[in-house]
Design goal:
Keywords: Methyltransferase, Mitochondrion, rRNA processing, S-adenosyl-L-methionine, Transferase, Transit peptide. This protein has helices spanning 2-14, 24-33, 36-43, 51-61, 79-88, 127-137, 157-178, 195-203; strands at 69-73, 101-105, 116-119, 142-147, 179-190, 206-212, 223-231. By secondary structure, the chain is α/β, with parallel strands linked by helices. The structure holds S-adenosylmethionine.
């Protein structure tokens, strides 16, 4: 018994722990711990730093107003939903303002958020998921459709770009079907050869389209957002 113990200890001593410096998880941890938005998100009770991207877009362009109906696509863990709920007063926390509605969907689980209708574990690209959203709209039209959807990265840049562009078009097609005239649309993508075409296609339906890169979007990331305003309506 004691022999096997000492053998084990010898073995432990000879094991060298490899440094994880330079590994992607090490870089991620270093970046997270030095990122002011991560700290700010914790202090302000947002589920993740992404909240600041929507806050910045809304502070600049005023797309969210009390009483509006918002669809949040790719909502997990939920920070955009938290922002939308407050800005459209979906939780009725301001009794002086009209109450809005927020419907949030994600492939992954979303923990409940007071004031939001949560559709977790649902793939937005599936027709039955979109039918569910329409049921929850209960005859209303959307004033704002926001999509922060991102596919799981494969590491093959062209394929990742194709996958996110596909999600953008699914969101656009849906937004066009269910939006009120004058509505807004925000969609996240990674800047690529298809950005211009997507912008052109959004402008077929929205009077004003512009690319936006919030300060809280990491400068070393290809992430940008396209913002469409003044939905022209379907004739
Ligand atoms: C960057 S995260 C969204 C973060 C979120 N906006 C927030 O502030 O908490 C991207 C999300 O898109 C979701 N997603 C990707 N493809 C999807 C799909 N087909 N249907 C629904 N959600 C999808 C992922 O599951 C992931 O949670």
């Amino acid at each position: 018994m004691s022999r096997s113990f000492s053998t084990t200890m010898k073995h432990f001593k000879s094991v060298k722990i490899k440094s994880s410096k330079g590994s992607s998880s090490h870089q991620w941890l270093t970046r997270q711990s030095s990122d002011p938005y991560v700290e700010k998100a914790k202090l302000m009770n947002y589920r993740c730093r992404s909240a600041f991207k929507l806050l910045e877009i809304d502070d600049r362009f005023q797309i969210l107003r009390p009483g509006q109906t918002v669809i949040d696509c790719g909502a997990s863990p939920g920070s955009w939903t938290q922002v939308a709920v407050t800005r459209v007063n979906a939780d009725a926390s301001n009794s002086q303002s009209p109450q809005g509605k927020v419907i949030s969907i994600d492939k992954q689980h979303i923990y409940p958020i007071n004031g939001a209708t949560i559709l977790g574990n649902m793939d937005f690209t599936e027709p039955q998921s979109q039918t569910k959203i329409i049921e929850y709209l209960d005859g209303r039209k959307a004033d704002v459709v926001i999509s922060d959807m991102a596919p799981s990265a494969t590491g093959v840049r062209d394929l990742d770009n194709d996958n996110i562009i596909h999600l953008c078009y699914v969101a656009l097609r849906f937004a066009v079907q269910i939006s009120e005239t004058g509505a807004s649309f925000v969609v996240k993508l990674w800047q690529c050869g298809q950005t211009k075409q997507l912008e052109t296609d959004i402008s077929r339906f929205y009077g004003n389209v512009k690319p936006v890169k919030p300060n809280s979007s990491r400068s070393d990331s290809a992430e940008i957002f396209l913002l469409g305003r003044s939905f022209k309506g379907l004739k």
